[in-house]
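During the reporting period the student researcher (J.K.) took over the structure-prediction task from the postdoctoral fellow and processed the backlog of single-chain submissions. One of the processed entries is reproduced below for the supervisory committee.
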Amino acid sequence: MTLKNEAMARLKGIYNITATPFIHDGGIDFRALAENIERLLQFGFDGFLIGGTYGEFPTMSADERSELFRRVTDIVRGRVPLLLCSAHSDPRIAYKLTELATALGGIPMVTPPFVSEVNDDHIVAFFRSLAPVAPNGLLIYNAPGIGITLSPHLIERLSDFDFVVGLKQGDLNPTVIDQLANRLSGKIKLFCASDLAFLGPLSAGFDGLSSTNSSALPELILKSFRAMQAGDAHTATRLHKSWFDYRELARRFGQPQTVKAAMTLRGWSGGVVRPPLLPLNPEQYDALGAVMKAIAGFDRAA
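J.K. obtained the following structure tokens:
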């Protein structure tokens, strides 16, 4: 089996998008991070996505991100695969972070460069430039939230690169999902980027899910995903509906803030968000607390 095939074999199931627990002086609480990862490993997640958009990578320096990659690699010790987000608008930094992610045994994940007036040819050239430091495979992240949405046609162009092993798809338009699932299935691995609306992409044939809110609601999201994976759409849908009120708040308040506040409510160390994000205010925190209590009641009944 080639290294690329090994990377593709690891890209399946549910990956936790791990919250980065910042402390008030701006640093990263690596002790809390280790505790969170160990807890999530016990729940049975298939892998971790480290330093993603909801891991707040745009607020971290390249040195901080490099340290985060190294620390998490040491914590996990090869027990599950790691997606290491090496995205950056500066191709030189993306190159160095991708090189490090590969050297550590992770699978680098890269967005298109988020700069003004970038076009399809620029994006293709950018990804091509990463080939020398991603011999074991690279995952494309189509992240509309950063201001660039890759079209299905452009994704197909990028999938022709031998080193591209997967796509994390953030544009969940049903027509786009249908096109990608039917044109690229079996060629590269397809991950749904959002646990807010993952039932459709999985039904269409996507290979996996990356989940932000599973840092706060690991039991429910994992059960729902496993049910869908087993072909039990009825149970998956029932469980997914059970945390709808939480999703509504996450959409209103912002996911990193909501996840970290929910972790705090459960006695876990989510840390704080970094500016320009702001933590939940007291009114928002109380609203979240009420929703979390209601979810806990449902989960016991389930």
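The committee noted the following: The CA atoms of residues 96 and 172 lie 30 Å apart.
J.K. will present the remaining backlog at the next meeting.
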